[in-house]
Amino acid sequence: MSGNTIGKLFSVTTFGESHGTALGCIVDGCPPGLEITEEDLQIDLDRRKPGTSRYTTQRREADEVKIMSGIFEGKTTGTSIGMIIMNGDQRSNDYSNIKDLYRPGHADYVYDQKYGFRDYRGGGRSSARETAMRVAAGAVAKKYLKQVHGVEIRGYLSQLGPIRAETIDFNEIENNAFFCPDVNKLEALDQYMRDLKKEGDSVGAEVTVVAKSVPVGLGEPVFDRLDAELAHSLMSINAVKGVAFGDGFDTVTQKGSEHRDTLTPQGFASNHAGGVLGGISTGQDIVARIAMKPTSSITVPGQTITNSGDTAEVITKGRHDPCVGIRAVPIAEAMMAITLMDQLLRHRGQNAGVSGPISPIPGSIK
Amino acid sequence: MSGNTIGKLFSVTTFGESHGTALGCIVDGCPPGLEITEEDLQIDLDRRKPGTSRYTTQRREADEVKIMSGIFEGKTTGTSIGMIIMNGDQRSNDYSNIKDLYRPGHADYVYDQKYGFRDYRGGGRSSARETAMRVAAGAVAKKYLKQVHGVEIRGYLSQLGPIRAETIDFNEIENNAFFCPDVNKLEALDQYMRDLKKEGDSVGAEVTVVAKSVPVGLGEPVFDRLDAELAHSLMSINAVKGVAFGDGFDTVTQKGSEHRDTLTPQGFASNHAGGVLGGISTGQDIVARIAMKPTSSITVPGQTITNSGDTAEVITKGRHDPCVGIRAVPIAEAMMAITLMDQLLRHRGQNAGVSGPISPIPGSIK
Amino acid sequence: MSGNTIGKLFSVTTFGESHGTALGCIVDGCPPGLEITEEDLQIDLDRRKPGTSRYTTQRREADEVKIMSGIFEGKTTGTSIGMIIMNGDQRSNDYSNIKDLYRPGHADYVYDQKYGFRDYRGGGRSSARETAMRVAAGAVAKKYLKQVHGVEIRGYLSQLGPIRAETIDFNEIENNAFFCPDVNKLEALDQYMRDLKKEGDSVGAEVTVVAKSVPVGLGEPVFDRLDAELAHSLMSINAVKGVAFGDGFDTVTQKGSEHRDTLTPQGFASNHAGGVLGGISTGQDIVARIAMKPTSSITVPGQTITNSGDTAEVITKGRHDPCVGIRAVPIAEAMMAITLMDQLLRHRGQNAGVSGPISPIPGSIK
Amino acid sequence: MSGNTIGKLFSVTTFGESHGTALGCIVDGCPPGLEITEEDLQIDLDRRKPGTSRYTTQRREADEVKIMSGIFEGKTTGTSIGMIIMNGDQRSNDYSNIKDLYRPGHADYVYDQKYGFRDYRGGGRSSARETAMRVAAGAVAKKYLKQVHGVEIRGYLSQLGPIRAETIDFNEIENNAFFCPDVNKLEALDQYMRDLKKEGDSVGAEVTVVAKSVPVGLGEPVFDRLDAELAHSLMSINAVKGVAFGDGFDTVTQKGSEHRDTLTPQGFASNHAGGVLGGISTGQDIVARIAMKPTSSITVPGQTITNSGDTAEVITKGRHDPCVGIRAVPIAEAMMAITLMDQLLRHRGQNAGVSGPISPIPGSIK
Known about the structure:
The structure is a homotetramer.
Chain A: E1 5-6, E2 11-15, E3 22-28, H1 38-48, E4 65-67, E5 71-72, E6 75-76, E7 81-86, E8 101-102, H2 108-115, H3 131-149, E9 152-160, E10 163-164, H4 186-199, E11 205-212, H5 226-235, E12 240-245, H6 256-259, E13 263-264, E14 267-268, E15 276-277, E16 280-281, E17 286-292, E18 302-306, E19 311-314, H7 324-351
Antiparallel strand pairs in A: 1-2, 2-3, 3-7, 4-7, 5-6, 8-18, 9-10, 9-11, 11-17, 12-17, 13-14, 15-16, 18-19
Helix pairs in contact in A: 1-3, 1-7, 3-7, 5-7
């Protein structure tokens, strides 16, 4: 229940640093009887995997997940599920030059201050490498939500630097290396990334995650509202600087008459709320957007200090993502799945005996 | 540990609905020896209190907090602190017309779906009235943080509808009824609110909360990062639709060379990060912004349905805030204080024995 | 989630010390729709109340519980339930003489060491007075368990000093002031207590709590086994020094062939296990026994030290229970109810979708 | 935070079943800077390991623990520590005959009822094999407690069937295969176990665990008292049916004048309390006793039913411990260490700033 665990009933605990022996996680509280294979998990792990396109880091990580426990005859037994990914490609020498350096925009300085010293190899625990286990755990949640409630969780790159997706075609997302739903923006994205690479710089991005067919009623006010818990889990992803639901920061300039979603017998007439009212799911699409900062691992030289307080120049060579937002798509999906799953079980625990009130109205009018 | 508790070591559990007998909370885990009086708590409660200006609801709530336990001879004893605010002004009849109606933008529909029925008086537990106890609990955390670590937590209205504060003068904030730090915008705000009242409409807002002098090292990666937990606690406030740190959603279009904050022996040269790197406080100001949606309690007529699925018209009369963002300032401060306090104790638990590494560099260069 | 909260889904958080303004608790996570009145709670509070017989302390505590929230039109709404008992009979002066004294067998010394000082009035938070709120919260759990699953939780005094109940007649328990199930021991108990009073001494006791008709399957291995969580909640009652299930410490000398409970198509042939196997309920009676130490508040003079380290004599005058085990009966029932309730909701959260396996066999053969 | 995690700040989460691929655990919240090697953990794992003497099961388990993360340059980094033990000796066919059988005294029946089916190989998750990871995690806690506070945690077999250790010589414990502190009882134990083996039966035992030099002040009333949390963790060990502190169930017949431990300037004059008063450590030895039931895996034939409800005979062949209490000694030490460690960090979190009150008096007068 310390900082490396998330979820109260469906709990995910992870371990592993960039250059350790292995990454791993324990998924506890999964309902029994769910069919799960390593292949199920590998699909999303491969979507997150670096080295799959020229737009992401060329570091190759096999990221082969092995299930160690909790599955018997192909099904979850209800006991804790252990998983491991062995770390293969450990080029420690790539990083030895940053041992004494506090890279700006990185966690080097704060880890030293918090813990007294740090594992400087590839960022240690603060490396985005730990997110692999989130994806593996999220795949378990995704499968259950899909199978039992028909929930679909889909993420996409809604913006990269100045380029914003305008047409949202869910069928396009997996057809390109950007997870971009707008086929008309692919060329611009490609050109932008080529230029960025030449500059040796990086860029921010916005990722949108949508959960469809979420049952009405999930969320535990007043503190563990569904949106509050999703904000927690999404903000816990490396490089995320903002989380918003529905109209998000646009609501600042909206009027009440404009924002409120009209209910009709056929369903909600709009979804400004992003699928959450009063911290509880409405049955509409849950729409979350996250802002991903540009990575600080760039070859543009910068100023910083060493751990003895001396000034120094820093250039981060090596194989890094110029836009971490791209690979964040499956990670964001995983975190949403983990939190929805936990909230589903918590809701069921308290309310399983509730005799259904009126039939839920449909989500949104198409 | 169900949904009405927040915090792991410094835990706040609340109860109370809009028209119940009383609101209350239990603050558990507060360090012993802190001098606390009811007056200390009342200061912030009065800042949140409705009826204090013509821009907020004219409903009068005495909001007088009583401490029931946990204090002896003026000091916290280390045991749980119980607090109560009796509900005085309970005009239940104001709300009887909404008994069968699902007000758009409100939690009526989802509460019925989740729990099978609801306390329809004034929104019941989903009313913003519950935030009074957050403010009382937050005042305890604020006082400890201030006294022991010199932490200052200050919130302000950074935007209301189209009007954005441009000069941030912390000394101005408490001088006006808007918690606005920009004296030059007061007239525009006054005019805007008068017009809004005539329209019978409401408007959104952005609130900014800043914590100064936070020790370096707070935050529990990978899931309970400081920003992730702050996102949780801030998003748990009614009407919040977005949370961002530092440059927030502006990072989407930033480049890495532009975003990263240079470290110098004199301190950080900028604070794009908003005081958090890798989920851990840097010693710079923690800067969080939240987007508050416009309240749906307006006199502009709208369409909706009843709990039998029939269409109906809704007009919310009564005494409501045309901009809930204004009174959210002390609430946002309180939630930040509660989370910082919890993280401080958690950090201390694990790391109290750590022999200090290098001296922390100062926050930001002025 | 600090030390004054118990339960993960059905959570009880309490506050209040012996001589504070009030005692209170928040029950969070209670399923909606349960009919609860203050009278329901008062029944068990009155059973715990001091001053009801000459065998317990003559201190009079009104112990009138008031529900502050979470109930609407007579039913739980699914939101947090706040309750208060105002402290009436506060004779602070009774206790002023122990201000600087560390009473042996009491928590005076350890509270001073842990927190730096203590509320010395009547033991402050360490007083058994706090158990009143456990009883109120437990009554909510009891009612739900009874109504939805037919669970009956009954406690009794199984031993007081050398006198052991031999016949267990559940119908006798409420007919006498000792909660003793053996009508033949009442005279001996009465005589023993009279003698004890003359001596100015106190005596230990054993309380047994039995839960009947508990569903098969409750318990969350490997750490949150049903018996482990019950051990936690029962051991958290003041003065408890031992907890045992089924044959308890008698198993030390048993052989496997003697201990194991045979399963037959008609049910278990015996219940040496006390209703729990592998940390999960079997459907048989859950039988827990707790050892209650003799209170140290006696008029027999004793040696001790002051907080300045000087030796001193201590005599505890005032109105104290010569056997705290008697009034512990409703408290032990309450703690068992709270833990069973929490485990029921947790089980339901994870396993609600499990399609029933074979029909459960009946509990025990009569 | 589901059932396979224990501890709030120092958290241990485990996975793994008898015949799965591997056992594993994640230790989260360990203070940074502690020197830990695999050898440190192996010492206690070897003490627990089966096949080390003729009195325990002849099953050979290599039980070689591998640390996967959280250690850098020989020291804990403050991040989560992943550990694995690969399962080697998996003779699945030994157990195929029990697939449809509900072995009396085992968890077969309740697992089927709870989860809908079960991993029947060697008891699956309900096998005592999972305790290996408790021992590995406990070794981390032990080392920290020893190094930073000089805490020594020692367990021993205080009784086996009718044979009770009378002389407690801590130096004898590791000299014999019984963990027996009384050298005069070794011959009787040897003879008893030989006879038991001939009978094909098993026997119960009592294990005592003592923690010396525990700081005064650990424990979080009112629910997370030190003894309540220790009761939880000790009762969570397979086969434990009772937990008691200090005089335990003997207090039932004690008088107050006899039980209370006199405080003197030289320390406590006795330790009837077992080192805990009011749920808080006193600085005396913490003395816990646990009752271990006789294992039900015996060759004495017994009656039971199958999962279709038919009667059947059961004989458990294979390699089983005739007295599980013997190997439970290092497990009980581990659980005590884990809980003391968690309580130490929790205490430190809340009270680190407390300026020491009077100097603690010494533990017990020798």
